[in-house]
Each structure stands twice: as C-alpha cells, then as structure tokens.
Design goal:
eight-stranded antiparallel sheet; about 25% helix; elongated; nine-stranded antiparallel sheet; alpha+beta; single chain
Length: about 425
C-alpha cells in the first residue's frame, strides 16, 4: 500500500473563560458540524480550536491505518513531509500553529517578544516564558472582529488626555504636556514621550488607579444615562471592558491603543513588540510555535508590566494601517494569500465559486493544514488511502508537494483556509 501522506485530523479545543458559550461560538459550530457525535455544552466556553502539533493540543490522526496517534508523532517519524526547506529551517518541526478563536470577552493586553528577548526571558523566567521562540501572529476575521492593536496617532491620545481628566491624573501633568508638545517632525521624541506616558499609566499605584477608574466609570455612566455623547471619552468601550474586568488597569489602555474593526476576510498582523488585545468576534489565527506572551492587564494571569513597557514598539499609526492586505493569486483567482513579513507561516483563503464542481488544492513545497469553513466536497489524493468527506469543520493535514482534488457537492461553493510555510 502506498504511504499515506494526506489525512484528516481531530483537533483540540481550549475552553478558556473568555470564549463564546456553546453554539454561539464558531469553534463549537465547526466542531458540531465536523463530528455529529460531539455534544456541545451550552454553558461551556469554546474559545480556541488548535490545529497543529503543540504539546498541549497535538492533533489526533483520524485514519486507523496510520500507526501514530498524533500529528506531532507522525511528523517526528516522517520529517520529509514538511518539505526540504521547511524541515531544514525549523529542525524537523511544523513551524506554525493554526487556530480558530471565538472571543466573547476581551483577552489580555499583551505583546510577544522578538527572538532575542524571548531567549533572554526564557533563560531568566522559564516558568513564565516556556520557550525561546518569537510569536508573530495573524488573525483573519470570520465574523465582524474587534481588537486593540498598536499605538494610536498622537493627536488622538492627546485628545483623550484633554477629555479624560482621570487619565491625565494617572499620567501626571509633566508627562502629558511632554506628549502634547512633541512634534511630528521628531518621531523619536514622540516615541520617547509616548513611552513615558504609557509606562506611568501601567505603573500607577493600584489604589490610585482604581479610584480614578471608578470615578471615570461613574461619570461616563451618568453622562450616558443623560443621553450625552461619551465618544470623547471612548465611553462605550470603557464601560464594556470595565464590566468584564472591573478595577483593571487595562481599561485605560483604550486611550492609547487603536480600536481595529475587521470585516470577514480582513486581517491584522501582530509582529514582535506590538501591543494588542482581541476584544470580540471569531477569526482564524496563525502563529509561530511559541507560548511567550507578556501581559499587563485585562487578565487574572501573571502580569509583567516592566518587561511589557520596556519592549513595546511606541510608533503611533492610524488604525487603518493595521489592516493587513491579502493578495489575489495570479495563477488561481480563488486564492487570496496573506503572507506576513516572517518566515514561519502564511495563510491562503480559498473561495471556490458555486460554478466550479472540481477544484484542485495544489501542491506547495511545505506541509499545510486545510480547514473547511463552508461547503461540502469529496476529496481524493494519490497520497490518501481512500476518499475523504470534507464538510464544515473538517481539518486535513497535507504533506509537502501533495495535492487534493475536491469534487464539490454544495450548491454555494466552498470557503477554505490553508496554513503553510512559504520559504
């Protein structure tokens, strides 16, 4: 029998508290449609679906002719499946973790270190920083998606400093004036002033910032009750985050960070040292294999304010600049490629129109993971032992240089996402 190099996966679900509940969650919906035997619990959060070889969620191989139980074990025994370049560049490991996220309440204010800082943090604090790798990430919206990402243009921050006295009190007059005076002709001066302001905020005394936050929430609640416009104080978002994380310093970061709204198919790329927090919605996400996260608010987990304030990229930019463009393939108009400026991963969105009944998922020189979001098909491949039924929520592992023919059976075409490594 020919060696099987394309096979379906059963993937791990993480039920973090911030996830959407039951069938509200895209993760749960994908799970339920891919496996009719799964019982979805209505009062359990279904936060993340992990498609990859991470030790805390190594995908299970759904083909009983394959002796290895998990994808991680199979790749360790068959490293050539990664493709020659990927195998050599990443020491025989799959270099990415592919995910679906369903976000109901905000994730922590966080950033991920570059490789140099990751190595240092891992050596000093291995209990908090478990590996020495960087963790760039890309999120592509499946439903309308909101997140905080990167520092706002200075004029927006200055406007909040002038409209939100509680914020100004925490930062202090000297730092606030320094930012107000910093000119756009001196970007290093702007970044330095921004660093001072943000660091002063994040290092505020707990009692002082809780008092200021309570005053702010009370004031905005009263203004909202009177029908006043609270947008000058970013009122709606403040009240929402405060209801999720009362008394948390992270509530004040909305005055520094861009609110980015993505429509389905739009993406944001989060490079090293970029402050961010996902707020609400469903997305596919791909990242380098790492667990290194430096947190500073909107979380009950370990926070490391000093490291975060030191490492951040303090370059202000408008929220529109955070949307990462997809490029339509010249060879195949069904493919849109999201290719970030890191070697570890890229994502293809494959939208097959209803007029096409036979579609070839073409070979690439990298192992890849294919996720079905919409549509049904029967997949055949010379590298698969038998036909594979693909439906919403199906996940396939495709070895390097293997292709799959899809015989579409759904009237509305298909929507697929494919994560790979394009060196």
């Amino acid at each position: 029998m020919a060696e099987i190099r394309v096979f379906p996966l059963s993937c791990a679900v993480q039920s973090y508290a911030w996830g959407k509940m039951g069938l509200e969650s895209e993760v749960a919906k994908l799970l339920a449609s891919s496996d009719p035997l799964v019982q979805i619990q209505p009062n359990q959060p279904y936060a993340e679906l992990w498609m990859g070889t991470h030790p805390r969620g190594d995908a299970i191989i759904r083909d009983n002719r394959i002796p290895q139980k998990t994808l991680g074990q199979w790749i360790a025994d068959n490293p050539a499946c990664l493709g020659v370049k990927v195998k050599d560049a990443f020491q025989g490991h799959l270099p990415f973790l592919f995910k679906v996220l369903s976000v109901n309440t905000a994730l922590s204010i966080q950033a991920h270190p570059n490789k140099e800082l990751a190595a240092k943090l891992h050596a000093q604090f291995p209990e908090h920083y478990p590996d020495a790798n960087h963790k760039p990430e890309m999120a592509i919206a499946l439903t309308p998606f909101e997140g905080l990402c990167g520092f706002r243009p200075v004029e927006e921050i200055v406007s909040f400093l002038q409209n939100v006295p509680e914020l100004r009190a925490l930062i202090g007059e000297v730092a606030a004036e320094q930012l107000e005076r910093s000119g756009s002709d001196d970007p290093r001066g702007v970044s330095a002033a921004l660093r001072v302001c943000f660091t002063r905020l994040m290092k505020s005394e707990k009692k002082f910032f809780v008092d200021q936050l309570n005053m702010l929430v009370k004031r905005i609640s009263q203004e909202a009750a009177e029908g006043k416009d609270t947008s000058g104080s970013n009122g709606d978002l403040l009240l929402r985050l405060h209801s999720q994380y009362p008394g948390d310093i992270g509530c004040f970061t909305i005055y520094f960070l861009n609110l980015v709204r993505l429509e389905p198919g739009e993406a944001m790329f989060l490079g090293a040292n970029e402050p961010h927090a996902y707020l609400h919605g469903d997305c596919v996400e791909c990242m380098a294999c790492s667990d290194n996260t430096v947190r500073a608010g909107l979380t009950p987990k370990f926070i490391d304010v000093l490291t975060l304030c030191e490492m951040l990229n303090y370059t202000p930019a408008p929220s529109s600049s955070k949307i990462f463009p997809a490029v339509q393939s010249q060879l195949d108009p069904s493919i849109y490629l999201y290719d970030p400026p890191v070697p570890d991963f890229a994502i293809m969105k494959i939208e097959i129109p209803s007029s096409i009944k036979l579609y070839l998922v073409s070979a690439v020189d990298s192992a890849s993971i294919l996720l079905v979001i919409q549509g049904t098909a029967v997949g055949t491949s010379t590298a698969a032992a038998s036909e594979m039924t693909l439906r919403r929520g199906s996940v396939l592992f495709i070895s390097a240089n293997e292709s799959i023919s899809l015989h579409l059976s759904s009237p509305d075409g298909m929507l697929l996402f494919r994560a790979c490594c394009l060196l």
